[in-house]
Queue: 2 jobs
Job 1
Amino acid sequence: MAATVEQIERKTLGKVRPHQTQNEGLVFEKSAAGKRGYKLPPLDVPEVDAKAALGPAYRVEKAGLPELSEIEIIRHFTRLSTWNYAIDLGMYPLGSCTMKYNPRVNEYVARIEGLADAHPYRPESLAQGVLEVIDLLQRCLIEITGMDTITLQPAAGAHGEFTGILLVRAWHESRGNARRKIIIPDSAHGTNPATAAICGYQVENLKSNAQGGIDLEALERQVDEDTAALMLTNPSTLGVFENEIHKIADILHAKGALLYMDGANMNALVGKVRPGDFGVDVMHLNLHKTFSTPHGGGGPGSGPVACKKFLEPFLPTPVLVKKDGELHWEYNRPQTVGRVRAFYGNTGMFIRALAYILANGPDGLRQTTEDAVLNANYIRKNLEDLYELPYKTPSMHEVVFSDKRQAAKGVKTGDIAKRLIDYGFHPYTVSFPLIVHGALMIEPTESESLEELDLFIEAMRSIAKEVEESPDLVKSAPHSTRVSRLDEVQAARKPVLRWRHENK
Ligand SMILES: *Cc1c(COP(=O)(O)O)cnc(C)c1O
């Protein structure tokens, strides 16, 4: 049943990536002296000698900027924009990233004049509307997580981790001892140990058990009076739910340590279970993952931190409080860890996330979670005969295969990912989590239809067949892009901008 690249490409890409736009030259190559993208009216003021007026600030040499007409500039950049891959173009199966669709209603709401124009220095009495939005989002997220309180300040997931561990540290310090170490499982996202280290903690590694979960006995041996916290991703980066999470919490609490949950994978839990109910003390959320605000490309993220009541005194300032029916920012909080971001956080993301939550409602959010888990398991079932599944534990919102069978033919996970580009899909996450050698980490999210999932499965099955029949074709992929295999380290510093004819 394996389809050829051409058949699948026709169905997924169509005319989206026409080959003629791939030969687009550099803007400098298109330049012709004297061309202009603008026209000024005739001079109607006395002419001045710029060189004399500016003195040494006058630039003698030409800046060497490209000279083009307006339509040439528009066409150049529009053509370049068609080379971008985007969630609005096709499936984006990057595991751990929850690349879900950003509903247009979010964008509509974020552009409502009173919200879009609200200035952070506007007096509180005139900003009650946007403060209501922030307050309502806080209450929704507290309800979803089962925690007691929250800050929306952190600008991303990693920044949320940093803020959360600052809370942990401040709480321990308030009891007389900051403690020295944080335990982190070997399946953790790289930002977890980085966070612990930057907050001044020693990182202690905890090995996962054969099911990909926490080994309770090993944890019990490792936790002591010097342990500040365990940082745990749940479901883990293997897509596995820690079903003994309440016991993990008990082991930590018995020694006075706290349970931090990396909540980047909440897309598998929203509406089904609440971290606050299974013993988590503090956690972050990624609004740009779970709650559908735009994601990637360096745009603004948002990583709220929710925690239990006992951590509330340490929250970053200002904290939103309601007094006499009006919302105010409260600054005077003696035990605060301080401000972690300018103003109040990325407000545009709050508006989008709230729009998403309200548009779905409780039943819709639960359905979303169920569909995300169903989609991941549909992919798992349809690929597990061709790709090695290192952990047999049931999958939540993502599935992790390994390239073991393909590696026997000399084809690695990175090669398969690059071949996927030829089939019109963004690659999955390559070589992560680190505990799976040659990992293929796939997270379809709930956004994908059955038809799109089937196309993806067809592409992956077709590639597995290619690995058997013509491994070199896969090892030299992608074949349909402007440039092919770049030096992945050098490419960021020495970009290769010119079309290489030998690729076609
Ligand atoms: C994405 C992610 C993070 C980091 O979030 P950013 O917003 O990229 O800083 C942390 N942990 C896990 C498990 C993640 O998937």
Note: The longest strand covers residues 227-233.
Job 2
Amino acid sequence: MKLQTDPRDTARPHFETLAVHAGQDPDPATGAIMPAIYQTSTYVQPDVGVHKGYEYSRTGNPTRSVLEANLAALEGARFGLAFASGCAAAATILHLLEAGDHVVAMDDLYGGTYRLFDNVFAQQALTFSYVDMTDPARVEEAVTPRTRLIWIETPTNPLLKLADIAAVADIGRRTGARVVVDNTFMTPYLQRPLELGADLSLHSTTKYLNGHSDVIGGCVMTSDPELHERLAYLQNAIGAVPGPMDAWLVLRGIKTLALRMERHVQNAQRIAEYLEGHPHVTRVIYPGLRSHPQFDLASRQMRLPGGMISLELDADLDAARRFAAGTRVFSLAESLGGVESLIEIPAAMTHAAMTPERRRAVGVADGLIRLSVGIEHPDDLIADLETAFSRL
Ligand SMILES: *Cc1c(COP(=O)(O)O)cnc(C)c1O
């Protein structure tokens, strides 16, 4: 029986069911319940130009096709495309534009996205304006007649600022700009950009979607057939595609996505509340706290507030560094969204590619600490932080 995954069909199963089954039928030859890893570059043709839908694995690979169908179903999209990394997905989207085109982007972006915009595509004559999208009016002011793309990241990294996706999507519709949401921090389980009016939803599957810190990957989903066709053309023309083994690993990770996200959020909420009452902590940023300046928007736009927390200590930069290096259950590392908890200092690690001026302008303090809260027992996580505090 084929699972109904088209977003236009109201009989579509729930998210958890789609995560386990969408795009995946038992192998007709063997009954294998898991999709095969088609580790092949090419496909034999019985006659010239006659084939079974696959000719060459840059253009298409059956394992990748299963992942793409699954990702589309999760995001409530008609189409999904998988890439070799989140950055490859972002770069392929930017290749939709032409020299002279303009992009309005959130001012507190993933560090690698900044690098791609300012150090790669700015040299190809694209122009970028960075605005604080917590107020949609600023987006509207920044739009020019050459604006082709509005790039939202919400919540942002690392300050967890929110943009109102529906309000910005409305500006995109009125001005003729396409709206992209980098949905990596939320996953389609917690936030549904296409249902809020965005044209494209992008992920680094490296993070929560795969969730096990063993793959680099990316994806783009849309329900617009023309956009999909152009992006699929670019995916093949540029060639930044994932191998079948990585596609398979992401598929396996996604099966437990809903369970993992529930636990990430439960743990993060507890830790955020613990930190908020801690005498050494001057500021906790978490969209699930009433103290978050956009708590109402978070409650409206996100199903749950996610697994990322940022905090500042009442101590100098050296102490913040010692704190981050002094935990045992939280590992000191870049990246996020895996089952294991991670701690890092954005100014010295993930956001070191930003100039100090830009970091200051955006509000990324040198001593800011970012936590990616994993799915371990929350008591062990809190005890670990408590030990690190006691050494300050
Ligand atoms: C990691 C990340 C990216 C880039 O993805 P890669 O898979 O590392 O190329 C883009 N956006 C966000 C929000 C990320 O966290």
Note: The pocket of pyridoxal-5'-phosphate is lined by residues 85-87, 110, 112-113, 153, 157, 182, 184-185, 204, 206-207, 216, 218 (CB under 6 Å).
